[in-house]
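Extended Data, panel c. Modelled sequence:
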Amino acid sequence: MRAVVTDKNTTQRLLLDEPMSVHTSWRVGGPVDVFYQPDSIQDLVTFLSGHDPNHEIHWVGLGSNLLVRDGGIRGVVICTLDLPDRIERVDEQHVQVGAGVPCTVLARQCARWQLGPAAFFAGIPGTLGGALVMNAGAFGGETWDVVESVKTIDRKGVLRTRTTDDFKVAYRSVVGATDEWFLGATLALNGDSGVSLSNITALMRERGNSQPLGKRSCGSVFRNPPNGFAAQLIEAAGLKGMRFGDAVVSEKHANFIINTGSARAEDIESLIEEVRDRVEADSGIALELEVRILGEGLS
């Protein structure tokens, strides 16, 4: 049962037994025990400082790159979308960006300021917070290539500023302090007269021509293996159009799985496992997941 309560220590509502299907781009997922969407950093600090430290905490932005199982999530999900989403130009080469800012918005604003290299953010279907977590990339660029420092918060509500030296960054991987989450970043960019909104539009058109935009998907399901592309391996294995229930491998881009109707998380996860098994049997390459899978299956 979905219920709404008001925490006396915050100005925001907490949603109990909130279905994650309305907060993920695949539109699947069971309920989370507590769903919290703060509208200020101070509310978030208050919430975390007074919260049970034994509860698991997960973070979500636009809900892309995330599969929540049908049994839902035990613990807390914190959504960043109502946190301050300012993009502020600090000086000629530095921009401060909140974690809840969609990457496409960031790309367009940097283009208006003629700052680069930031156009690649137009190809990332999520928020900056999610891009920081996984070092998301597109069009040859990666998020942490332009990060100078990040603002974090821990489960006790303590705020910190950390530099890139505090993290080990690799392809689609970022390892840093445990139990800290990103609230924003300072990006180091440069003036580039070749950057324009028309460039961003061209990149978005290129993305639309090659990917099934507007469909219920998570973006890329698998990481690209070294010196190759997951989509090519999936297509070579003859798996385009393969389906479990209403979960289907895209005919347009084989590294996308589409919810074409009323797919369950179980259908999507089963299809992911089958694709991975068949690609390994066909090519000898074990694909690694790019999508995060959270929660419990139905008993």
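Residues 1-11 have pLDDT under 50 and may be disordered. This feature is highlighted in the accompanying rendering.
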